Structures are given as structure tokens and as C-alpha cells.
């Protein structure tokens, strides 16, 4: 089995096909075998005209034919020899056709498989900002449609190129051996055909690049609309969205129409050029045969070979069309692979994490926006529960992303147990942190699959125990299939509170030394909030817990409460201490508790 492919280095000057060839070096042997089988298949495919010429030679010359000169005078035996040769040639042609079809198709599948895995692996390593600036549908188009387009070319187009090249070399050589005078006229169209192919290729390239962009936008629209189908229905915007899809689809159709208009002109123009070579062979070769300068058998071979040489070139139009579509897709895939990874893993590993977290003069701003966190310093002792509160936009949730290194800080340091998180292995850092977000994401699958997500080795009893701690067991066993109930895409078959409790069970099962609760109860009713609070009281014992909250009642018992405003730390202390200070926290408490 070939090893994993290495990612090509960014170089805009390298032709897409060359980059693809460089990428597939792991399958060199299979590529050579496929090329050899395609070449041999075409050679045996071109042999029948020679047999026909030999048969005509036997009919015309009988005992003076070419085969007779080899010692076989009997006409019947000559035809037996030709029949036997036909059997061998047709059999070998079929064998090599099977071989090349299997080799090219498997090669296409292998490269498609590895390229998709490499592209997805690279995509996962990119920072969160990359995804926030791009549509999911556009990225899906690259991972699926573009890579499939490349596979279609490798499946068919590569073999076509090899066989056309073999045809030109073999028949061109035969022409110059059998009839040098006629060969020049027969081969005269070739430079014009090659020049036309290159010219069409250059003209088509930007058209197909535009086609790939348009289909990416269309896929993005479909993805957004299917994800937001509830919103579309509730706002009765079906006709509005239908019209937007129509416009995007029309743009895709229009860009394809322009490419088709150019690519469709290729074959008719090539046919006109081919006609010149065929007519020259028919006329000049015929005159030589009549004059006795060429045998009838040789003339028959030339007429057949001219057709076998020139007419297959009309397929260059389809091959060129596939090639340009594939190269446009190749560019998009390699542009993704060329995207630099900005957040790199450290090399240090912590055997055990106590959970001491410290931020020292941390500053951060999202790309193209004002600073969100400004010289922020705070200390979180191991095993303690701290809360971070503040108005919307104060930077609370941003701290979570910075601690998980979903974004990289601009200044300052963040340490876990005294070690800079930039020096820690990313997997170790994130494995030590359990996140329960207000925006719970459940994968399409069963309840049990979502609970053990991130802890795949967990047993069913362990998962059930985690669900009980999260007070999720009761409602789970009442679902149609219990723990084997399908939750639907994003968990849409469950209520918000049920999704939240499954997320807590998932975090409990992970058993991280650091637990982050990012507005974990903000979107649930009072009864569910009470249940979640009871479960949190159990799982936060002897565990470093960072609770980001909007409802102050949920964090009043925290060991320390940090109050943020406009990216800065403005207050800190226990609940009672902050009320006595009568500042921002006290103001927020009065608003939420209804005290005037």
C-alpha cells in the first residue's frame, strides 16, 4: 500500500496537472502499469487494419503475397495464419482493455480518497476564523464536487490522452515506413490540431474556473436553506428563497453555457482540418496504387490507418472539456491545501492536569474588528469554581475560545498549571478541557453515540452513569428507543433542555480537569435550569470550573466572580462582596432580581 501523500508546497506558477502528478507520486507503479496497458491496448487495437491489408494482399497476389514470401504458399493456410493472428490480437486487446480500465478506475478512486482525506484533515487544522469567513456549502463543494470532478477525469480522460498519443506515434511511424510521400500530407493536419487544442484549452480555463465558483455559491445557498428550513417556513419566505435559488442556478447555467459554446466548437473545426488529411491520403495514395508505386494492400492499410489516426482526434474535444473542468477543480482543492495553518501545536505534554489557569496581560482582536480583550489578567486556582459575567459583547465567550486556542492571542500569555498553552500539544490541551456551550451541537445519530462522542472507549454503564449525573437518564429512557433513539441532525428531535443535558453528560463522561460552562442554562426553562444546576453541583466538585453566565442566580455560589466590561476586568470577588461594592455587578443583580 502506498503511504500517505505529502502536501505540495504552494507555488502558483506550477501547472495544475503537474501538481496533481506530484501529488500522486505514491502511486507511481500503478500509474506506469495503467499507462503501459493503455498503450498496449491501443497498439493491438491498431493492428486489424494491417491484417486487412495483408488479407487484401493475399486476395490480389495469392502465391506472391507478403505471407507467401515467408514460405506459406497455400492461400487457405495464409488465411488460417491471418485468422489465428486476428484471434490473438483481439484477445490481447480485450485483456489490456480490462486491465487499463481497472487500473485507471482504481487509481482515480485511490487519489480521490487520499485527496479528500488530506483536504479534510488540513481543513480541520485551520483556525476558527477561516470557517467564519467562508460558507459551509462552498467548502462542501470543494470536498465533494471538485474532488469528484477530478476523479472523473482520471477515470476516463487520462486514458484518452495516452491512447491518442499512442495512435499518433504508431500510425505516424507506419505512414513514414509504408508511404513517405503520402505521410507528409496525412500528418499535415496534426500541428494545427495540437495548436487548436492548446488555444481552446487556454480560452476554456477561465470559463471553467467561473463555473466552479458558481456551483460553489449554489451549493452554499442550498446548504444554508436546508439548515434554516424552519426559519424559512416560519417567515413564509419559500417563494423568496426559490427566487434566490433560481438566480444562483441561472448564474451557474449561464457560466456553463458560455463554456459549452466554446468547447462545442472544437470538434467541428477539428473535423474540417482532419478532412484535409483524409482526402490527401485517399487521393494521392490512390494515384500511387494505380500507378503501381504502392501495393493495393498497402493502400488499404493507409486508408484505414488515416481514419484511425485522424477521426479519434475529434474526441479531444470531450477530453479537453473533462480536462479543463478537472483542472479548475484541482486549483480549488490545492488552494485549500495551500491555506497556511496559523495555530500550531506545541510539543509539551502534561501527564496530569491540576487545572490551575492564569491569564497575564492578554490582548486579542478579531480580524478586521476592534480589540475585544485588552490587557486582561486573571487567576483561576485549581479545583475552584469561578464565574465570568458582563454585558453582551464584553468578551466573555472570547475567553473560552482563547483558552481552547481556537484563536491565537496577540499579546500576553495563558498558562495551565504554569505551562504556556502555546507550548502544549493541542490535543492534550483540548482533551483537558470540557466545554458545555449554550449552542449545543449534537451529531445525527443515537443518544448513546452523542454521549460517548469524544470518549469512544466508554462502556454503556459508564455512559448511563454520566447521563444520571446530568439528570438526563429519566427522559432518555422514555424516548421511543431509549439510548438508541436517533436525535436527528443537530439534535432537532429533542428539546433545548434535553440537548443541553446530553451535552453535560458528554462532558461528565469526558471527565476533564477543567470544565467550561458557556451560558449553559441561558436557553432553557426554569425547571430544566434547576435540573441542570443540580447536576452541575455534582460535577464541579474538585474540578476547575469556569462558568460564563448571563443569569447571575446560577453563579452566586462561585468561589470568585469576575466582571468584565468592554474587554477589561472591572470587578472581582464573591457574590456578597460585589453587592456591597454597589458597582456594575450590583446593578446587573438588581435588574435581574427585580430589586429597585
TrEMBL record:
Gene3D superfamilies recorded: ABC transporter type 1, transmembrane domain, P-loop containing nucleotide triphosphate hydrolases
CDD domains hit by this protein: ABC_6TM_exporter_like (cd18565)
Residue stretches in coiled coil: none
EC number of this enzyme: 3.6.3.44
Location relative to the cell: Cell membrane
Transmembrane segments: 79-100, 168-194, 259-284
UniProt keyword annotation of Membrane present: yes
Domain ABC transmembrane type-1: 34-325
All residue ranges annotated as the ABC transporter domain in the record: 357-591
PROSITE patterns linked: ABC_TM1F, ABC_TRANSPORTER_1, ABC_TRANSPORTER_2
Membrane topology annotation: Multi-pass membrane protein
Keywords tagged on the record: ATP-binding, Hydrolase, Membrane, Nucleotide-binding, Transmembrane, Transmembrane helix, Transport
Pfam families: ABC_membrane, ABC_tran
SMART domains reported in the protein's UniProt record: AAA
Enzyme class per UniProt: hydrolase
Recorded GO MF terms: ABC-type oligopeptide transporter activity; ATP binding; ATP hydrolysis activity
CC per GO annotation: plasma membrane
Keyword flag Thylakoid: no
The protein's name: Xenobiotic-transporting ATPase
